[in-house]
Amino acid sequence: MSRRTLLISIAAISMTVLTLGAWRFFRQPEAINVVLITLDTTRADHLGCYGGARTETPHLDALARNGVRFEQALSPAPLTLPAHASLLTGLVPRHHGVRDNSGFKLDPTIPVLTERLSVAGYSTAAFVSAAVLDRDGGLARGFATYDDIVRVGDRRAFDYQERGASQTVDALLKHLGTLKPPFFLWVHFYDPHLPYVPPEPYASRFKDRPYDGEIAFMDAQIGRILDVLKQKGTTVYLAVAGDHGESLGEHGEAGHGVFLYQATQHVPLIITGPGIPPGTTAASNVGLIDVAPTILDLLRLPPLPDADGRSLVPLLHGARPSAPDYEMETFYPEFSYGWAPLRALTAGPYKYIAAPRPELYELPTDPREINDLMRKNAKRAAELSRTLAELTRGDTAVDPDEDAASNERREKLSSLGYASGSKAPQSEALDPKDGIKLLPDLDAARRALQLGDPKDALAPLARLIAVNPGNVPARLALGQAQLALGRTDEAVGTFRAVATLAPKNALAWFDLGNAWAGKAVKDDKAFTEAKRAYEHALTLNPRHADTYLNLAALYATRNDPAQAQQTLLRARTASVSDPTIETDLGLLDLARKNTAGARDAFTRALALNPRQSEALLGLGQLAYDAGDFAAAAAYYDRALAVRPEARLAKTIGAIRLYQLNDRPGARAAFARAIALSPPGDPDVPDLRALVDELQR
Questions:
Q1: What are the φ and ψ backbone dihedral angles of 257, each rounded to 5 degrees?
Q2: pLDDT at residue 8 above 60?
Q3: For residues 44 and 267, is the Cβ–Cβ distance under 8 A?
Q4: pLDDT average, residue stretch 83-94
Q5: What's the CA gap between 604 and 606, in Å, rounded?
Q6: Maximum Cα–Cα distance across the chain
Q7: What does the alpha-carbon distance between residue 669 and residue 621 come to, in Å, rounded to a whole number?
Q8: Are 236 and 227 in contact (CB under 8 A)?
Q9: Per-residue buried b or exposed e for 365-383, using 16+ beta carbons within 10 Å of the residue's own CB
Q10: Around 164, how many Cα atoms within 13 Å sit in the side-chain half-sphere?
């Protein structure tokens, strides 16, 4: 019987027992609450308690003083979803099956920590901060509350598919009072992930080190949680763990995912709680796969069946058992760029990395893995190579699932900076050490596109594709550059080629639709091809907001508002939550004099983004038409704060003067209009006279 078959069989038996509630009797008479805080993309050596002297982490440092800090905690993968799957299952990725951030979902037969705690009587809630951990990844199982609404507001530094630590904590604190003890609470923070854009005052304080500024901001928000728990007198076992680190340029990698060096694999792990001796450090190798077994052991609950991890409770109390070997992997290079995947094994002081050109390092003396010992210690390298090969014998990571849900996740991950390519032919399996040298060209091309200089993207992309023709993200960037330069026919050819190379990549079809749409105003064939490409993209990813928006815009170019509206309503039916879609639906209803529908759509838009200016303007117009001038002025004031325009300030001034008889408010609005008016605006003299008159 294979290990996977055995796991499924055990899971089925376990779930039968769980249904009977038998495990309730194993819980302590007074069960203790559990809080798990995970720190995305956080290097251990950038926390004060791990020697990061330049980073401000007072709350995490205090936790380390009050509990046990594990000096050598290891992540099984430098990717968020696989690492968190290991945290909650106690399994390495080859056993839980989640091998990359996109295209994979935790098998519902795999037992998870949360289900065990839920059956044992724990209230459960999770608050995650990025789309990479949305419920489509399969980690919501067992949680009564799984808050994965990541688009909340408009802190402009945040990416489209993430929310900042302060927003996550705001949502958490609103819910905390409803959690009945004993509870299990998981909080995930995403802030130190690229791009590094800490809010003030951290942006100024860490001007030259924005990554550390993100960590400091995150630490402050962790302090808010700790303060509330302290005020409530809540007793908790609290575990803080990084999911993976960040290379920050080491070994040529800016971010994470490609390599398995300690920069991304050495993570913080701190555990505190009743009976855990304060100020303790544990020096032996441990892993994220040990977290779930440890929590269950602390609570005196049965372990998860056949877990790869072990309980660290003996280490919490000073025992020094021999450390097992820990394996790591990354298939991100293969699935994203067509390069070779990597595996690694740590055994005692040594770390072996299996690659086309394998590597061996002695970590205690070489923590940054600079001195490769493959030749100097070939015997030990051969031993570890055999051990790793035996462990992984027969394991071949399958291609990512290409169903609609995984394509939606791929689109979200693309917005978070991850490559969204499909697996390239094995004949192009470069060693990532060679492949990483190609990525500066891709990054340069993407920067040029972002800065509005598409011509500057062409040369680096040509160099990259000549060496790595199966690199789908590079080919997509080339097509986008061609489209931006008005080379529509070339862009169509490029995107067609990508769709052939990766036929189930929804982004390729979306881009192909965009290329045809540029010619569709007067060209019937282009209109038909654009519509076909968009519709095919939606069969692959029925929850991609931009495809619905662009398809609706395509119909609008043909003066077909009814089809445009139906397209956007399809998005709503597909459970797409997007403020622009709701705003456009509101505008279409407004044009049809459907005030109730318009009001509902604009209100939906503001629930998703309170700074959606078009929705604020729409509600302002509806209020004005209904004679509620105070509400109209209030909506317009909010819109002006988001989109400062002289025209809007004039409108506010007129409402306040003529409908509300608010002379001071009118004067302020007209003065604002003067400040926002462009040079030579013919209205400015009249506005100045009006301001002077209102001042008298």
A1: 115, -35
A2: no
A3: yes
A4: 98
A5: 6
A6: 93
A7: 18
A8: no
A9: eeeebeebbbeebeebbee
A10: 23
Please compute, for residue 492, the number of CA atoms within 13 A of its CA located in the half-sphere on the CB side.
14
Instruction: Please state whether beta strands 123-127 and 350-354 pair in parallel, antiparallel, or not at all (unpaired).
Output: unpaired
- According to the model, what pLDDT value does residue 11 have? 39
The string over 298-318, giving b where at least 16 C-beta atoms fall within 10 Å of a residue's C-beta and e elsewhere, is bbebebbeebbbbbbbebbee
Mean pLDDT of the chain: 88
27 has a pLDDT exceeding 50: no
Which residue bears the tokens 């983004």? 609
Token pair, residue 526, equals 């282009």
Element (H, E) at 63: helix 58-66
Separation CA 332–CA 410 (nearest Å): 13
In this structure, the number of other CB atoms found within 10 A of the CB of residue 581 comes to: 25
> How far out from the chain centre does Cα 70 lie?
26
Q: Which two tokens stand for residue 484?
A: 């931006």
Beta bridge mates, 36: 186, 239
How far apart are alpha carbons 419 and 332 in whole angstroms? Answer: 9
377-409 pLDDT per residue, tens: 999 999 999 999 999 998 876 544 444 445 554
What sign does the dihedral 14-19-20-25 (CA atoms) show? positive
For residues 581 and 584, give the distance between their C-alpha atoms in angstroms, rounded to a whole number: 5
Q: Identify the residue whose tokens are 């007198």.
A: 233
Rounded to 10°, the helix 613-625/579-591 angle is: 30
Q: What is the pTM of this model?
A: 0.79
Backbone φ and ψ of 309, nearest 5°: -80, 170
pLDDT at 155 > cutoff 50: no
When pLDDT is averaged across residues 486-501 and rounded to a whole number, the result is 92
**DSSP letters along 607-652, please?**
HH-TT-HHHHHHHHHHHHHTT-HHHHHHHHHHHHHHS--HHHHHHH
Distance CA 223, CA 60 (A): 8
Q: What is the C-alpha to C-alpha distance for residues 214 and 206, in angstroms, rounded to an integer?
A: 9
Cβ atoms within 10 Å, residue 156: 7
For residues 424 and 167, give the distance between their C-alpha atoms in angstroms, rounded to a whole number: 38
Q: What's the CA gap between 281 and 273, in Å, rounded?
A: 15
- DSSP for 177-232 reads TT-PSSEEEEEEE-TTSSS--PPTTHHHHTTT-HHHHHHHHHHHHHHHHHHHHHHT
SS3 letters across 646-670? HHHHHHHHHHHHHHCCCHHHHHHHH
Q: At what angle do helices 455-467 and 472-484 cross, to 10 degrees?
A: 150
Rounded CA separation 57/189 (Å): 14
C-alpha dist (Å) from residue 419 to 163, 332, 477, 507, 538: 20, 9, 11, 11, 20
What radius of gyration do the chain's Cα atoms show?
28
Could you tell me what percent of the chain has a pLDDT over 90? 74
Residue range 216-234: mean pLDDT, rounded = 95
- Alpha carbon distances (Å) from 614 to 161, 606, 630, 643, 644: 21, 10, 19, 9, 13
Q: Could you tell me which residues come within 8 angstroms of residue 423 by beta carbon, excluding any fewer than 6 positions away?
A: 334, 335, 338, 399, 400
The type of residue at 497 is A
Nearest to 266 by CA among 341, 364, 354, 193: 364
φ, ψ of residue 467 to 5 degrees: the values are -90, -35
- DSSP category for residue 162: B
DSSP assignment string, 460-527:
HHHHHHHH-TT-HHHHHHHHHHHHHTT-HHHHHHHHHHHHHHSTT-HHHHHHHHHHHHTTTTT-HHHH
